Amino acid sequence: MRNIRLIVAYDGTDLAGYQKQSADKGITVQGALEKALSIICAEPIQIYGASRTDAGVHARFQVCAFRTSGSIPVENIPRATIAHLPKDIVVTEAIEIPLDWKPRNNIFGKEYIYSIYNREIADPIGQRYHWHVKKPLDIESMRHAGKALEGTHDFSTLKGANTTPADPVKTIYAVGIVEKNGHIDISVVGDGFLYHMVRNIAGLLVDVGLGRKSVAQIPELLAAKDRKRIGKTAPAQGLVLEEIFFTPDRLNTVIQRIKGE
């Protein structure tokens, strides 16, 4: 028996999210991967992922693991899955790892990037991958608001409606915002995230950028622990799971990069 770790990338536009659902709900990342791996390993395969992304959300670095007694060489798995996966899902790396390694118990944090296009006229080329905000945003105010979210807090205000019970206390290590020619990337690095949390962070920062909320209100909003105190959830298409960190060194490298931007 072997334990195999995969790095998976996908365009989530036409997918029904990561988690496997009934066939009538559409194609999911987990469902497609299990079907493809079961074929190439010649046995039923069940995979375990590090992050359950929503429908419409993308990933550059999703992490999955599965056990198999199949004989396919691990280095052949990325190439072998191509013929059996939808074009929107790609296995970029496969390595053998210890049998006790599990995706959710052996990571040190995650980075998400939320992208916004801030011009009056839309950009049709990138519309599958950003949120189009027409009114001018105050980027500096958004940066200050992002800094106010850093640290360990109860993030109940930023969780999604109808979320499954989870510990709302999370640590955000860094929030960075880069803007170039109307393209805005919000990078958020943390030890874990609640359902819709990053999309709600993006929505809150946009409200600050539009003057609907102020930086000074951030501590009060967090203390309220009330989702109704903030505005709408940013749309799914702007969000990318950018990286999942296997080592504290890599995590710290990314944190320092974001803080230096």
UniProtKB/TrEMBL annotation:
GO molecular function terms listed in the Swiss-Prot or TrEMBL record: RNA binding; tRNA pseudouridine(38-40) synthase activity
Keyword NAD assigned: no
Residues given in the record as substrate binding sites: Y112
Coiled-coil ranges per UniProt: none
Chemical reaction(s) catalysed: uridine(38/39/40) in tRNA = pseudouridine(38/39/40) in tRNA
Keyword line: Isomerase, tRNA processing
E.C. number: 5.4.99.12
Active-site residues annotated for this sequence: D54 (nucleophile)
Origin: domain of life: Bacteria
GO biological process, one term: tRNA pseudouridine synthesis
Pfam families recorded: PseudoU_synth_1
Top-level enzyme category: isomerase
HAMAP family xrefs: TruA
Family the UniProt entry places it in: Belongs to the tRNA pseudouridine synthase TruA family.
Protein name: tRNA pseudouridine synthase A
